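Shipment paperwork, digital attachment
Item: protein structure file
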Amino acid sequence: QLAPTASVNATAGQVQRELASHTTEISKNMQSPRLPSAAAHRADHVHEQTAQQQASAMLGAIKGQGMTWLKNIKDRTTAMAQTVQSTYGGRGPDVSFVTSRLVIAPLAEGIPEALASQAEDAMRLSILEQARGQFAIYNLSQRRLRCDYSNRSSETPMPPLGSGITPTLNMLMSVCRNMALFLRQKATNFVVITGPEAQCVLMASVMLLYSGVVEKPLSAIELVCEKRNIPILPPSYHRQLDILRTIVSTDRENLRAMVHNRRVLLDSILISPTPTFNRSRTGCRPIVEIYSAGNKLWTTGKDYEELQSFELPESSKVDLNLGHVPVADDVQVSVLFLARINLLVFLFALFAPTWMDLRMSDLILSAVSL
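Attachment content:
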């Protein structure tokens, strides 16, 4: 019985020794992690500081550039605002009393939208300070009025001066009739004409002729010129003033013989001698536009290369076949001589108003005083 027990004890001891030796080998094979040395700590700290410094420098540069950009934008915006304010806002309201009942208050077309309301309000306050009574304002501009005029404002836009289109006679007389009606209502009433300066001068001159204050177009322009420096009016504006003067100063019978309500056929346009408006000064390629009552009826406008060329000495005159264009009312024939670079416009208006639009009752002007 002792033998087996001793054998078992020996076996257990052998197993313990083997396990102990195996554990020792495993411990030797497994290397414990090394703790970082002081030098490694210092290197990592220096690298971290360098990275932080680089990041701070980059952010500082971006911030500095951004602030510089914002400062430049702010400075330029301030300078632009000061320039605009000094250009348009520093002039003050441009108001001229042609007579005690006829006022011109031009508003420049180039005023920025941000200052348009301010300029119009300054104009309105200036008019109220200089005059007493109610006024009706007539806007000849393409830009609508913004202030409140108690339903006494009239939007009557005229064609821009650079468009080559002349305001029709019927339109001018319609505005004059409306002005005269307002002036007759009360002795203290007065009218204000606003819009581009050239159109304001034209409308004021027309009203002076219509109401009988002056008898000649030149006298009307000179009366306006006494109050302000007027711009150079195109020939078509002077032509309309001449026509209106003829209507106002002509008696009923003679006027009835001059005007009619029948259409006129335009067959051709003859220009002699041939204008030399091309680059080589040897001829031209004219563009013709025909307007009747402000509406375009006919034009040769097309590609420049397709326009008919008239060259000297082969073409001593310009003969344009229109093909029987029927016209009535105010007739305007615009001939544009295009030289690719320069655009010289020669405008002339032909007069053919209808008798239906020129009622003699509208020409009784003695009740209107300006």
